[in-house]
Design a protein that fits this description.
alpha/beta, 6-stranded mixed beta sheet, binds ligand F0G, 4-stranded parallel beta sheet, 14 helices
């Protein structure tokens, strides 16, 4: 039986006797060894952390379970978030599971259809904002300050990051030590901040002998940290990380600098290449934003970085089923049709 994040890592989370034992089956996601990309790009050992295996299909569930349990403990009755889609899916699920009303603010026309369906299915109040994610987050923060009963469950909520750091614990628990490098997509920069916190904490506790270099990847059209200034009109095919002014900017910079890592940008074509290689070469179907870390690894390997004796983990942040229209980008041959006759089908296949 799935124990959930709160139970598995209880001693390392900000829980009290009054925190409800909430779970919808999040955490304990697979860490799988690469079959082909490892060889293709000359990596010593390459692993993928499949965060799309969480109950709502993304890593957000790890932080959301802590944020919602704490909101319940504090007597809050409504959840509020701004989202590019995954946070809203997760908040809506935990809201439904715990009987709290959930209000989600999403940038109009910018959220993948699967993520919209999730908010609908879980019964959230959905408000589309005529602006981008950064506008939606600004309004969510203002609204939470204005109306007391709203628990803001974006990654500005410290409990979110506490929950998300458990993915770093799992990697060390699985590998027996921290990897040399961690490649991870960066949008609002909460996840890279949380992973770094988790690795530092395990290292300090003597549970890992080292800490990884943190390799954060922004999309080139939405790369404020790389450029050193907010991007007013962020643009990228990877809608989940279409963010111009990340809330956890300072956390990402600290993770980069303290770990000796980097925050780099990958272009849409680099993202789409990795988005196509993962399913076709590894059997891993993720959403475009989730391929950004792998795109960064490929970019650096091609530029001559030597990973031949390194252990590398790439975080695959969400499932490809969130954004099926995007998968049309991967179609090399349109589906064919045949009458219900074996020989006819054989003829089509042979064609
Ligand atoms: N990958 C996916 C699939 C995401 O949904 C997000 C963020 C990220 C990566 C980046 O993580 O923001 O912690 O740097 N999605 C947020 C949302 C913004 O609203 O669902 P980050």
């Amino acid at each position: 039986m799935s124990e959930g994040v709160l139970k598995r890592y209880a001693s390392r989370l900000p829980l009290t006797a009054a925190t409800p034992a909430l779970t919808i089956g999040e955490g304990s996601t697979p860490l799988v060894r690469s079959r082909s990309l490892e060889r293709e790009f000359g990596v010593g050992a390459l692993y993928f952390k499949l965060e799309g295996c969480n109950p709502t299909g993304s890593f957000k569930d790890r932080g959301m379970v802590v944020a919602v349990a704490k909101a319940m403990e504090e007597g809050m009755t409504r959840l509020l978030c701004a989202s590019t889609g995954n946070t809203s899916a997760s908040a809506s699920a935990f809201g439904a599971a715990s009987g709290l009303e959930t209000v989600v603010l999403i940038p109009e026309g910018s959220v993948a259809p699967g993520k919209m369906s999730q908010a609908v299915a879980y019964g959230a109040r959905i408000v589309t904002i005529q602006g981008n994610f950064d506008d939606a987050l600004r309004i969510a923060r203002e609204l939470a300050a204005y109306e007391e009963r709203f628990a803001l469950v974006n990654s500005v909520n410290p409990n979110r990051l506490e929950g998300q750091k458990t993915a770093a614990f799992e990697i060390v628990d699985d590998l027996g030590d921290a990897p040399d490098y961690l490649f991870i997509p960066v949008g609002n920069a909460g996840n890279i901040t949380a992973y770094w916190r988790g690795f530092v904490e395990y290292h300090q506790a003597g549970l890992a002998t080292r800490r990884p270099r943190m390799m954060g990847m922004e999309a080139a059209g939405a790369a404020p940290i790389v450029e050193g200034a907010p991007v007013l009109k962020p643009e990228t095919v990877a809608s989940a990380i279409r963010i111009g002014n990340p809330a956890n900017w300072a956390g990402a910079v600290a993770a980069r600098d303290e770990s000796g890592g980097t925050v780099d940008a990958v272009t849409d074509s680099e993202i789409l290449e990795a988005y196509g290689l993962l399913p076709s070469m590894e059997g891993i179907f993720c959403e475009p934003a989730s391929a950004a870390g792998v795109a960064g690894l490929i970019k650096q390997a091609r530029a001559g970085a030597d990973f031949s004796s390194a252990t590398v983990v790439c975080i695959i942040t969400g499932t490809g089923l969130k954004d099926t229209p995007m998968a049309e980008q991967l179609m090399t041959r349109p589906p064919e049709t045949a009458p219900p006759d074996m020989r006819e089908v054989a003829r089509v296949i042979a064609g």
